[in-house]
């Protein structure tokens, strides 16, 4: 594909918008469809036979590609009225789609992963082994919400190691604790049993039922 694009650029110096080259996959365009569009940037006349000859693509394939691009709302074929009616390619829809893609890209914010949250709370980069342990928790059917709650619990208690968090998760699984609401319910239950002990000092790992 690259060689064909270079030929097109050298022959007539077609100006190709950089955003088209970097975002055509987001528009669900194939490589061949991209070549057709780049060709049409140099001449918007709709002449399938010339396109077929210049690009060395069979005419039925050219027509199929044009039809695909029309279906994807990338281009449309319009007619110029005059002494002789002429068909030409209108690429305005493509430019509109590219503009919307750029706007959406700016709106998107990087998604914070559970690993990012651990590194933020620990104040350091996780080791490969720690990545594996957290991944094993997720594979072991602990939800990310539960893992994050256990992380917060450990940090609140001044502990920043995965062994401690693993014990918390194990205790929570025994008690069926999965959400923040479950944690509050368990603390309230424990507080009623031992009124002298502050709720926020609840020790998950040394409780005797």
What's the alpha carbon Rg, rounded to whole Å? 30 Å
Order of helices and strands: HHHHHEEHHHHHH
Binned, the helix content reads 55-70%
Determine the CATH superfamily of the largest domain: Winged helix-like DNA-binding domain superfamily/Winged helix DNA-binding domain
Provide the structure class.
mainly alpha
What's the average pLDDT? 81
What name does CATH use for the topology of the largest domain? Arc Repressor Mutant, subunit A
Q: Judging from the principal axes of the Cα atoms, what is the shape?
A: elongated
CATH C-level class of the largest domain: Mainly Alpha
Please give the count of helices: 11
Features:
single chain, 209 residues, mainly alpha, Arc Repressor Mutant, subunit A, 2 domains, two-stranded antiparallel ribbon, 11 helices, 60% helix, elongated
Describe this structure in words.
The protein is mainly alpha-helical. It folds into two domains: 2-107, Winged helix-like DNA-binding domain superfamily/Winged helix DNA-binding domain (Arc Repressor Mutant, subunit A); 114-206, Orthogonal Bundle (Arc Repressor Mutant, subunit A). Helix content is 60%, strand content 5%. The protein has eleven helices and two strands. The chain has helices spanning 2-10, 18-23, 31-42, 48-55, 59-71, 92-107, 114-122, 128-139, 144-156, 162-175, 180-193; strands at 76-80, 86-90. The chain has a two-stranded antiparallel sheet with strand order 1-2. Strand 1 (76-80) and strand 2 (86-90) form a beta hairpin. Helix 4 (48-55) crosses helix 5 (59-71). The termini are far apart.
